[in-house]
């Protein structure tokens, strides 16, 4: 049992996969060493499921399945990547060099909230207002 493909479909899928691999290789080759290091660090990083479970339980979630923890960890990782990217953009716009500082991340959070990408801190208060 399983999914059966015609040979033409399989060849198309292989060509698409190879094209994606070559595009990724071109992209990685175009990165400078600092960017490549940041990329590799981001790929290796993850949010531990135990920490995600504690966070969800602090919000009142009682059912935390492993797949839920993995999905929410991935979403959190994407949000953090957006936050860091916006922080680096802000740092470059102000002409600063070096490591990100808390002021850059706070400014990035405000920027993402203003764009509607990130919820504001008063979201829960507005949502549950009586």
Strand content: under 5%
Mean pLDDT across every amino acid position: 80
Strands, total number: 0
Q: State the helicity in percent bands.
A: over 70%
Low-confidence stretches: 1-6
Specify the oligomeric state.
single chain
Work out the radius of gyration: 20 Å
User: What is the distance, rounded to the nearest whole angstrom, between the alpha carbons of the first and last residues?
Assistant: 55 Å
Shape, please?
globular
Number of helices: 6
Tell me the structural class.
Answer: mainly alpha
How would a textbook summarize the main sheet? none
From N to C, what is the helix and strand string?
HHHHHH
Could you characterize the architecture of this molecule?
This protein has 130 residues and is mostly helical. Helices cover 71% and strands 0% of the residues. It is built from six helices and no strands. α3 (49-58) packs across α4 and α4 packs across α5 (102-115). The protein is globular, with a radius of gyration of 20 Å. It starts with 6 loop residues before the first helix and ends with a helix. 5% of the residues are buried. Mean pLDDT is 80; it is low at 1-6.
Question: Secondary-structure blueprint of this entry?
Answer:
Layout: H1 7-29, H2 33-44, H3 49-58, H4 66-93, H5 102-115, H6 123-127
Question: Concise description?
Answer:
By secondary structure, this protein is mainly α. The chain has helices at residues 7-29, 33-44, 49-58, 66-93, 102-115, 123-127.
Key phrases:
mainly alpha, 6 helices
């Amino acid at each position: 049992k399983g999914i059966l493909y015609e040979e033409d479909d399989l060849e198309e899928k292989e060509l698409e996969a190879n094209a994606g691999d070559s595009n990724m290789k071109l992209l990685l080759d175009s990165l400078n060493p600092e960017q490549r290091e940041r990329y590799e660090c981001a790929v290796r990083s993850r949010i531990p499921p135990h920490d995600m479970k504690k966070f969800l339980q602090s919000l009142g979630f009682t059912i935390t399945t492993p797949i839920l923890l993995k999905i929410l960890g991935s979403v959190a990782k994407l949000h953090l990547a957006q936050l860091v990217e916006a922080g680096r953009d802000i740092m470059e716009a102000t002409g600063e060099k070096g490591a990100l500082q808390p002021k850059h991340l706070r400014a990035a959070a405000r920027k993402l909230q203003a764009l509607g990408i990130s919820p504001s801190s008063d979201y829960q208060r507005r949502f549950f207002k009586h």
